[in-house]
Each structure stands twice: as structure tokens, then as C-alpha cells.
Amino acid sequence: MKLDGYTxxxxxxxxxxxxxxxxxxxxxxxxxxxTNGVYVAWEIEAVDxxxxxxNIRRYQMFGINLSMPYKEQVIPYLDKLxxxxxxxxxxxxxxxxxxxxxxxxxxxxxxxxxxxxxTISGKKMTILGAGGAAKSILAQAILDGVSQISVFVRxxxxxxxxxxxxxxxxxxxxxxxxxxxxxxxxxxxxxxxSHLLVNATSVGMDxxxxxxxxxxNLPETLLVADIIYQPFETPFxxxxxxxxxxxxxxxxxxxxxxxxAFQLWTGKEMPTEEIWQSLTEKYQ
Length: 284
Description:
With about 280 residues, the chain is α/β, with parallel strands linked by helices. It has helices spanning about 20-30, 50-60, 85-90, 105-115, 130-145, 160-170, 185-190, 235-240, 250-265, 270-284; strands at about 10-15, 35-45, 65, 80, 95, 100-105, 125-130, 150-155, 175-180, 195-200, 225, 245-250. The chain contains 10 helices and 12 strands. The relative contact order is 0.13.
């Protein structure tokens, strides 16, 4: 990697963020595409967010990525929002376009690009959870022409989830079905009628728990995805594979959302196959 007076900076901004593997991904991409750039991780306090965003212009940066807790907080400091960022209500990528700061959310696009030989257009999806990752997947699915979405959350989270889904329907005209995760018969019915089942909760990061009971039967052609990539195979994915279903973890989502951001910043395609090999060796 060459560093000189023309090197441009990109960063991921969050708290905490020192554990992030985004610098590994993007610096590999800068090197592989002969782009004079460097990517770092900035762990900042909330009071420093406005100044951090101002520095994108000040230092003529490519832009920044954002993770928790700043994906929503950054919006007032930006000049424009993309369609998906507006629908999601959160930004994970800021692009410096000649001094104009544009907010994007590449998480949903990254998720769907990570699914092998699958397009969501005209398909039915069941998703578990309604947090930030789920919102990005929901919004992108609607933009990409999904035919039906069923969202399952715990009963205690139903009231908290309704306002976002109502707002989403007002903006898109698309009705999302909200159901209680404890209603196993409804969960079975919706999964049986779906083409894609997604775990967008954190359940399974302990390597022991699963968000659904093992009594659920999966249709043969159902694709199962988990946004978690550590552990590499969650109990949820292991259960799906034991029924003979194709199953995908969240490492591809991480890579492809980064690839979308990289292209927005540089106009170049990230060499995802090469970097994927390095990632799987690192995490498998």
C-alpha cells in the first residue's frame, strides 16, 4: 500500500468499533484495485459526531461507514439521502461527492447480493426480528419487488415494531405482516409458504440458542439465512442444514455491503472473490 500526499482517507465510525474487520476488507480492496486510499476505524463519542462528519469535507475524504449507535444520529448532518436510507431511517455509508455528503444504506443490497442464485423479486420472505439489520433487509426487499413479507418478533416487541411498519407502508404502499414469534403455528404456516427465511436477531451468537423451535418443518426449496457470522455456523443454520436446506451466514452480507460502499466511493468494483477467500480462512 502506497501512502503519500495524494492518499485519500475512509473510515468506519462507531462506538465500540476497534474490533471491526471493515479495515481489513477495504484496505485489501484499495490494494487490489491500485486505489490510493486507506481505511481506518474511529471510535468516537456522540458529542464528536458532527465534527467527525465535517472532517469528511475538510480532509476531502472518500467518506465514512457508520455502525451503532450512529446510523440514525448522522442523518441531520448530511445533505441528501438515498431512497433506501430514507425508507430504513438509517445510514451506514456517507459519500463525499465533491463536497456534498450523501447518505446511503448498503446493508440490504449487501444481504441480497450474498444469497447464491437467489432474487427476491416476486418471492415471499419470513424474517425474524425487527432491529436495524432487519429494517435494511425489509426496505431493500420492498424496493426489489418482494411479493410478501412476514415479520416475527417477540410479543413484548410488537407495539414497538408497529410504528415503523406503519411508516413503511405509508411510504411504499406495501403491507408487512407482523406476527408474534411465540405463535408457533403461525410461524410454521408462514415459513411453509416462504421462499426465504432470515434470522435478523442476535439469537445464536452464543453458539447454543436458536430463534425458532426445532419442531418447525422447512419446505425443501426454502433458502435460510442468518445475519450472524460468528460463530460461522449458528445452531439456526445447523438445524436448517440438517433438514437439507441451503443455508447462508452473515459473512457475505458484511462483504457485499462493504463492496457497495467501496463502489460508491471509488467507482470501482471490489474484488469480492479474492477478499471472500481471505475472510473465510479468517473466520471459518
